[in-house]
Structure formats: C-alpha cells, structure tokens
Amino acid sequence: MNKSTPKIYRTTNWSSYNRALINRGNIAIWFDPATQWYAPSKGKQGRNQTYSDAAIQCCLMIKSLFRLSLRMVTGFVQSLIHLCGLNWIAPDYTTICRRQQHIDIVISYQ
C-alpha cells in the first residue's frame, strides 16, 4: 500500500497572504445610534424595565461570543459604548442575569 504524498502549495503573493492573515483577527463591533437601547414606558403600575430586549440580547451575544462572565460583559459593553461615543449606560450584570431567563435569542447564520 502506497501512501499518496500530499500536494504542496506554495505562496506566491506574500503581501496578499499577509493581509489575509492580519484580517482574520479583525473584529468589527458597532452600535447603531438608532437602536432603542432603553425600554419604552409601558404605562403599567410598577417600575418599568430600564433596558430594551435588544440591549440585553446584545450583551448576551457578546457574553457567548467571547466567553465572558456577566461582570466582564458589563465592563466590555460599557467600553464599546464609550468608544462609539454614545451616551448610553451598559446594563448591570444582575439585570442581564435576571433578564436572560426570559429572552429568546435568535441567531441568524449568513
């Protein structure tokens, strides 16, 4: 039984190859200022929710993507908001913990 030797591929365009390797680590995260970060008032008795489901969902997606604890997610999201120049406040880790039990996250694969 002869083992076939694997094909050897040689890189000929090193500048393009290096750019591709660098772009593998590129992370682009942005917040749309038109997104409703804070929950609208429902006009019912009791305290209204401060953050919208979209804000909680954003935090949970980042938690899942980077495998962070809830406290780290709060700091990470707050720093991203600050970098985007938005005047928002990140949800507290206890708020994320309570709300994650009642949110259905739908991830669309492209």
What do you see in this structure?
- The chain is mainly α and 110 residues long.
- The protein is built from four helices and no strands.
- The longest helix is centred in the last third of the chain and has 15 residues, at 70-84.
Oligomerization category of the chains in this entry: single chain
**Number of DSSP helices?**
4
Mean residue pLDDT: 87
What fraction strand?
Answer: under 5%
User: Helical percent range?
Assistant: 40-55%
User: Largest sheet, if any?
Assistant: none
| Structural class assignment | mainly alpha
N-to-C terminal Cα separation, in Å?
43 Å
Radius of gyration: 21 Å
- What is the approximate shape? elongated
Helices and strands, in order, run as: HHHH
Poorly predicted sequence stretches spanning 5 or more consecutive residues: none
Number of strands: 0
Chain-wise SSE layout:
Blueprint: H1 14-24, H2 53-66, H3 70-84, H4 93-99
Helix pairs in contact: 2-3, 3-4
Protein name: Transposase DDE domain protein
InterPro entries: Tn903_transposase, Tnp_DDE_dom
Can you describe this structure in just a few lines?
The protein is 43% helix and 0% strand. It has helices at 14-24, 53-66, 70-84, 93-99.
What labels would you give this structure?
single chain, 110 residues, mainly alpha, 0% strand, Tn903_transposase, Transposase DDE domain protein, Tnp_DDE_dom
